[in-house]
Amino acid sequence: MTYRIYLVDDDRFLLDLYAVKFKNAGHDVTVFGGGEELLAALRKEGTAAPDAVLLDVIMPGMTGFETLEAMRKESLAAKAKIIFLSNQGQESDIESAKTLAADGYIIKASAIPSEVFAETMRLLEGGAKAQ
């Protein structure tokens, strides 16, 4: 099955790295440099809804948490799996993600791209929420 994956990160190198991983597996990937860019695309009439959004926490402008709050408030991409992909591994950040009903939280520094890909696929294919 082909999934539509949205990647949101201000680090262009990481965006490209993850995009290649998902594209090579046959998935449709769109990258965004920040939360505002993602929200603008989701609000645009006729935009295809993503199956998953991988969202960095710390970005210029809106944080990933603020972005997800706006998405929830406006019912944007309501059926998408939301996975935080961040270097922020503090328990308070993980708790914030849970409060916002994120489906997963991956710490970039301790996960190679193939692990990020595998966890995303697990969640998309009906895996339980990460704890």
Features:
131 residues, alpha/beta, Rossmann fold, 5 strands, 18% strand, globular
Question: How does this model look, in words?
Answer:
- By secondary structure, the protein is of the alpha/beta class.
- It has one domain (4-124): Rossmann fold.
- Helix content is 40%, strand content 18%.
- The chain has five helices and five strands; from the N terminus they run E-H-E-H-E-H-E-H-E-H.
- The chain has helices at residues 12-24, 35-43, 64-73, 91-99, 113-124, and strands at residues 4-8, 28-32, 52-55, 81-86, 104-107.
- It has a five-stranded parallel beta sheet, with helices on both faces.
- The radius of gyration is 13 Å and the shape is globular.
In short:
The chain is an alpha/beta fold and 131 residues long.
Helices and strands in order:
Elements: E1 4-8, H1 12-24, E2 28-32, H2 35-43, E3 52-55, H3 64-73, E4 81-86, H4 91-99, E5 104-107, H5 113-124
Parallel strand pairs: 1-2, 1-3, 3-4, 4-5
